[in-house]
Amino acid sequence: MLPHAQITPSSPQVQAIPIADCGEPLLDASRSSLIRCGPPPECPETAPFYRLLRAGVLARLEQAQQHLPAGLHLRVYEGYRHPKIQQILFDAQWRRMQIAHPDQSAAWCYAQAAMLASPLRTFAGEPMIPPHSTGGAVDVDIVDAAGQPLDFGMALCDWGEVAPELCATQYPGLTDTAARHRQLLVEVMTAAGLVNYPQ
Ligand SMILES: C[C@@H](N)C(=O)N[C@H](C)C(=O)O
């Protein structure tokens, strides 16, 4: 069993969770008076879906929002993601890893890419269901009263281009401010029953 600090969407204990549609509705987060939503991420094709979250996820986000200091708001970057978009994102990361690390094996590059974007198949070819394609995962940041994102050490939209280590929650090269903001986000989300992928 991997410790939480190493869990990724393709870890065995995550993939062991059976996924069956429970009928919980997908709700548009922009209808919430508490939660903010950013522009469509990744590509224009995400526009119709990216604000959709399972009702239980939206309720937990609203709960997490209550734990934030006044003037700060959770902002949805992306909730539901169509499997076709997920495949494009994973393939781009796998390609990026192979170009950056030509001496590494395909399996190593696959594992690195899988920490950044969930694959739709294991390296051995077994089908997998990416968390975002269930409506049960959400990417968020925090914005201030003027709608400006707090300093997290990187813009959320740059996840696919920055050094992968910078995407790890506890990257040691962060400024104190960025580390504090990441910690705040993890604390409020965890308090509401959500689980962070630390890498
Ligand atoms: C694509 C990136 N923002 C993201 O959501 N990554 C996680 C690991 C995922 O694809 O599930």
From TrEMBL:
Gene3D superfamilies documented for this protein: 3.30.1380.10
Pfam family, one: Peptidase_M15
Name the UniProt record assigns to this protein: D-alanyl-D-alanine dipeptidase
Entry keywords, A to Z: Cell wall biogenesis/degradation, Dipeptidase, Hydrolase, Metal-binding, Metalloprotease, Protease, Zinc
GO function term, MF aspect, one: D-Ala-D-Ala dipeptidase activity
GO biological process, one term: proteolysis
Catalyzed chemical reaction(s): D-alanyl-D-alanine + H2O = 2 D-alanine
Record organism: Rivihabitans pingtungensis
